[in-house]
């Protein structure tokens, strides 16, 4: 039986990145994507009940904010569910912007999409129709994305990004 992946991502910008990485670039495991900030919001019984049997959960979250206790509670709850095969975490050190700078040749996040400001960047990123091409134009390197281990209090959470990255 083929593995079923369910990504729970912090926000719409992470959702957009995962969509492009899995569909347009085929660099990560395919799966459903849902916005749920697992370091701020509690996983509900309903969200777990609607999962297919044997689903692998992937929690994608920033490490510059949030609550480690909520994250740990979400991991425990998910692992107890009979529908969940496994739970993996992808830690964004410190946030998605830092990850994109690290994995491309840009120095400032605004350079990726020629955004006027950091706040404009998020909007531009979500709306960008040619994100694959923009990433490629800036020498995107999947090996540099999600490659750092987080600082306390997230240092006890293992970064499992290698689980979802397709082997080249």
Q: How would you summarize this macromolecular structure in one to three sentences?
A:
The chain is an alpha/beta fold. It has helices at 12-24, 45-49, 68-80, 96-102, 110-113, 118-127, 131-137, 161-164, and strands spanning 4-9, 32-35, 55-62, 84-92. The model has no long low-confidence stretch (mean pLDDT 96).
Helix content: 25-40%
Mean pLDDT: 96
Number of helices: 8
Which strands sit side by side, in order, in the main sheet? 2-1-3-4
Residue share in β-strands: 15-25%
The helix-and-strand class reads alpha/beta
Q: What is the string of SSEs from the N terminus onward?
A: EHEHEHEHHHHH
| Shape field | globular
Radius of gyration, in angstroms, nearest whole number: 16 Å
Oligomer: single chain
User: How many strands in all?
Assistant: 4
Low-confidence stretches: none
Taking the alpha carbons of the first and last residues, their distance comes to: 22 Å
- Give a short account of the largest sheet: 4 strands, parallel
Descriptive report:
- The chain is an alpha/beta fold.
- The chain contains 8 helices and 4 strands.
- The protein has helices at 12-24, 45-49, 68-80, 96-102, 110-113, 118-127, 131-137, 161-164, and strands at 4-9, 32-35, 55-62, 84-92.
- Helix 3 links the parallel strand 3 (55-62) and strand 4.
- Helix 1 packs across helix 6 (118-127).
- The longest helix has 13 residues, at 12-24.
Describe the SSE topology:
Elements: E1 4-9, H1 12-24, E2 32-35, H2 45-49, E3 55-62, H3 68-80, E4 84-92, H4 96-102, H5 110-113, H6 118-127, H7 131-137, H8 161-164
Helix pairs in contact: 1-6
